[in-house]
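re: that chain from earlier
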Amino acid sequence: MKLKILGCGTSTGVPMPGCLCAVCQSGKSKNQRMRTSAIFIDEKRGNILIDASVDLRTQSLIHHITRVDAVLYTHAHADHILGTDDLRCFNFVLKKSIPCYGADHTLKRLRHHFDYIFNPDPNYQGGLLAQIILHEIDEITPFTVNGVEVRPFKLLHGLSPVTGYRIGDVSYATDCKEIPTESKNIIKGSRYLVLDGLRHKAHPTHLTIAESIKTAEELGAEITYLTHMTHDIDYDELKASLPAGIEPAYDGLEIPVTI
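^ sequence. v structure.
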């Protein structure tokens, strides 16, 4: 199994349309970041997507994702869920429904945003709607997806709750400003950690780079990769400034997973 980063950019993506800053105009491949999401790839067990980002179709084509067997949702902000409709492409391929997992607060918003999927118009005569089955998790109890144990944990995105996930020796914690103690205890012992790291300037709902460094050092993963980065961040400059064991993520990064 491996975890592939499909997008490590903030909600606007990088480059940001209309922006003439140095990063957006750099043309560097690692300064081109689609909206944040990732996928656990396992040829035998199937693929587990983390968030259906608004860029899901493009991400799937670029990174040769040919199947999605399950989805883990972190929260219901637009950049993390608006690719949900594109899951129907994988319904065509798999010829079955896709199980999707999330906390109560996330599933409520999904049902609201995609009312046409969950409460279809009986007079609708268009193409196939996305066939997905929602499964509520409690963010405390481990559960199994495709025969793999998933350990959820709570994060705070300002005042909004977010769900992080650990599979094997990899933990994924995007969109957070605070990690509760009980969640840190789940993350500790991970070999790899994907962690929110928005920018240098203070932000009310995201970890800054300095805060991410402090958090990474406390959690003690062998390598921490920063994700959800804005166009304020130049990949090469940030990488050169980070301490050993902490690196910026990039779209297409592959992380080995030991279960």
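The mean pLDDT is 98.
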